[in-house]
Amino acid sequence: MTVREEQPTTIRYRLEMRWCTVLLVVTAIGIRVLLCLDIRPLSLLTMAAVVLGTLTMICIGLRRYCPERPLPWYLLSASAVLFAVGTATREIDSHALHPIDDLFTLAGYFGTGVAAALWLWPRQARPNYDLLLDSTLIGLGALLASWTFLISPILQSHDTAANTLVAATYPVLDALLLTLVAHSMATATRSETSLRLLHVGLIAVLIGDLGYSLDTVGRAPVAHELLLVPLLVAYPIVGVAALHPTMASLGAPRRIHPHHSRQRASFIAVALIVASLIPVVGSSLDTLDRVVVSSLCALLLIGVLVRSERAIVRSARSERRAQYQADHDMLTGLLNRSALLHALNRNREHWIERPLCLLFIDLDGFKMVNDSYGHAVGDELIANAASRIRHLIRRDDVVARYGGDEFVVLASLDREEAATLAERLLGAFVRPFELSAGEIPITASVGLACGSARGSDDTIYDLIRDADSAMYHAKEYSLGYAFHDELRHGAEPRNSTADSGRRIWRPSGRSHNASGKSASTAV
Question: Would you say the pTM of this structure is higher than 0.70?
Fold first, then answer.
């Protein structure tokens, strides 16, 4: 951006900030005048100026940031006008124009509620039933308090049926709006400054309407000039929210994090505290009140039980996932070294008084594959090798990735069965591996150590040490596989299958083809 382009932008920004400052000053002066003087024309003029300034700030914000979802801001602007008209009508003559002021105010509530719903609904990247359940519980708690302290006294008043119905509608709408605000507060982040300012503005509206409701039922008579103060405070806060850059991102889909669930739980705890106070403050409730209060309390408790059950299930699922990650290798899905070392103690009944054999498997030439094709291809090779090994062992046997390209199989086998399994494992590596880099042939060496379970972890350590030594012996002499007891007795490497009556695996010399891949055969 050039200097000439920056100058108009800077000038426009200064003018907008002046509008904001003027609005805040007018609001402060108006509130001061209302608290000191009871002049209705002046209070109405102040409200008109504040509403006009708020609408101007919203228009400036919409033009500057061009949000993808401007409809909620238009609804909020219309609601501000409707609230102002309803309040002004009530201030002019609360009796002659009584139905009209309520119609404007209720329409303002409807617009505000729709705007809040449009902002909140797309915030979930996917359906979140726990979030819906928590919001419902918060709404039930707010409705329970509204019925006890506001709706029930209004219904017991001796006014006309129409006036009673309209007066009782306000606490219900306040409970619904409070639910939306609590929902939004529990899912908001610190970076969403515009949304947090809207929270403050809506809470100010709720405080003002609560004062009107308390004045209607006669519980706390409040002067009309004090009832206007929360509304006058709410207007400029909404205007400032519209001028903040984060106003353009309101309603964008995102995930709800676990700590937000704890925030919602705090709102539910407040609702339960309110429910526990009902027997104290509502000792003189009639039959209808008791039925409604009991129903709301029952629904609230059922919802809390459902939420607790879901939390327990979610916690158990997380614990199982954490345990699985602690015992398994994430690349292959096999047990890791730590789980292998405790395998005998975890399933002692399966291993006790049975022959035990441990096979230590190492891939020949894996380092060359890893260096030639990269670690990604090396990981593919490890995962495919693990899959082939897993398909050859029995269900009760233990297979683990010991580390790198080393695998361990722990099985209840005698010597002959162990030799057969070793040959099958070596045979699984005859076929080349089809990886992203192409077909890559590779062989393996297996060391075997047999013994018996002595009921301690020392058995595993001894078998791993012995099998590892046998594996290096088999690799050094190209045997394919070797038993540790043969090393201990000084057995010479076999040169033919006639020595033992078993097939001896010998990888031949490697020859590199044009593509740089190595080939090996087993005889």
Answer: no
